């Protein structure tokens, strides 16, 4: 289905002296991804960002598009365990990668530690930045560079919150960090 | 976003072959190129994805230096144990920039080649000589709070936005490139250029040339260094002014000092003759102020950015003190000591 939609578009490539010229239709390219634990064989156009692939083609709308320019962090997902801005990542470059989005971290009834802590600490208001915040916090935990509150604030600085829930977000992240430091594991 | 052809070579030679020709762009982390393609500022016909090239290692060099592969991410570079221990100035500068997510994607080669953040350059509805040669410069006489105070031309007053490159300039790094005509090494000081009458050229890389590695010379400055970055908010913002200092002190006297400025010019700014004034001197307010004045000789504001001259002057003095005292600026606690 994905293939059909993309190929039906018959995009043109190329530009000469400022004008686009008709070129051979660009075939979509094969892309193998593991998304939230599920292997997917996909076809994408080379200019599709990971964020658009997730939201528009795979119906994983948890990851948000705040700015589309790397300036807000709402689109943060994990690639092979590392947090990145999915709006600036061309999907086609990720062949073979493992992607985790907010949908893969936890689900209703089976919340991830961070999700539960965000609720516990009232770490959101409108909630638009929250999926990105939580994926970012998971990335922060994987990286292991943040220990103090100041370090958590700095290491979470790639996620803006228009509602200004920063204080409570830091509290939630610190709680999970502390619990993990005390040997509590999630699985 | 614009449409383009895509290829994903696995070797350097293959990549350079694919990269030859007009309107081809190498894609690394994509954090700058993808953004510019969305804005219709970068319009490559062909994108060559270099992420599968074997340029993703940090290696020891004979003689004690360190070689940073072009595809090592900014995060992996900043947190590398050898970089942290031997080149903490570089670690500090990288961690002062962008955000953790961006640093996880951004590569060393991409950081070197990132383009200016001049608002007009980004806005295709305004004139810009860098984007469209001969069109005029929207920033001159326009909104230019973030623009350059040194080395500008009548054609362009943009700055180079990188933090990493400011540290590389102070460390005298060498840039290794491979292109259609073979390999060459470009000293960092000659890599970026001033706008002159060809503002569309950010650097001295030739068409099709690929950065493969950045070499850090053995001499390190792990005891006396700092990266002081001043910006509109504490994190996740480009520098208005930044100062990298690498210094050596013996028996109370400075034996060598390097001072590189970011946010003030089209390239990381150094003034060897001003740095020379520090040699043989004991650290102190008077000499630091003299040196700051010498570095900023000829500095000129464009209106909105006039404040940068005095800000830079004070930042240089403060950074020299931080380096001399062995109390580098923390990139977590942003209070300036
Ligand atoms: C919101 C935001 C905030 C930021 N804040 C900062 C900041 O505070 N400080 C800072 O220093 N930076 C900052 N950045 C910029 C960021 O550091 C750069 O975008 C990044 O370093 C570029 O690396 P990349 O690998 O993603 O490059 P890409 O986007 O892949 O490429 C950038 C350019 O380099 C070229 N290129 C890439 N690799 C090579 C190579 N090996 N050889 C030749 N050419 C190559 C590409 O063709 C392209 O022209 C910020 C970016 C964003 C989006
Ligand atoms: S300062 Fe340079 S980049 Fe900015 S509008 Fe002028 S020519 Fe373009
Ligand atoms: S949507 Fe990606 S950073 Fe804002
Ligand atoms: S909760 Fe509304 S933007 Fe963060």
Outline:
By secondary structure, chain A is of the alpha+beta class.
Explain how this protein is built.
The complex is a heterodimer of chains A (187) and B (337). In chain A, helix 4 (113-120) crosses helix 7. With 187 residues, chain A is an alpha+beta fold. Chain A is globular and about 50 Å long. Chain A has a five-stranded mixed beta sheet. In chain A, strands 1-2 form a two-stranded antiparallel ribbon. Chain A is built from seven helices and seven strands. Chain B has 337 residues and is an alpha+beta fold. Among the domains of chain B are: 5-51, Uridine Diphospho-n-acetylenolpyruvylglucosamine Reductase, domain 2 (2-Layer Sandwich), CATH 3.30.43.10; 224-325, Enolase-like, domain 1 (2-Layer Sandwich). In chain B, the strands form three sheets. In chain B, strands 4-5-8-6-7 form a five-stranded antiparallel beta sheet. A four-stranded antiparallel beta sheet of chain B has the order 9-10-11-12, with helices on both faces. In chain B, strand 4 (58-60) and strand 5 (66-69) form a beta hairpin. The structure holds flavin-adenine dinucleotide, iron/sulfur cluster and FE2/S2 (inorganic) cluster (FES) (2 copies). The site of one FE2/S2 (inorganic) cluster has 12 residues of chain A, from loops.
Class from helix and strand fractions of chain B: alpha+beta
CATH uppermost class of chain A: Alpha Beta
| Unreliable residue runs of chain A | 1-22
Going by helix content, strand content and strand pairing, the class of chain A is alpha+beta
- Give the distinct bound molecules: flavin-adenine dinucleotide, iron/sulfur cluster, FE2/S2 (inorganic) cluster
Q: Which fold name is given in CATH as the topology of the domain at 224-325 in chain B?
A: Enolase-like, domain 1
CATH architecture of the domain at 224-325 in chain B: 2-Layer Sandwich
* Count of separate DSSP helical elements of chain A: 7
CATH class of the domain at 224-325 in chain B: Alpha Beta
Q: What is the fourth-level CATH superfamily of chain A?
A: Beta-grasp domain
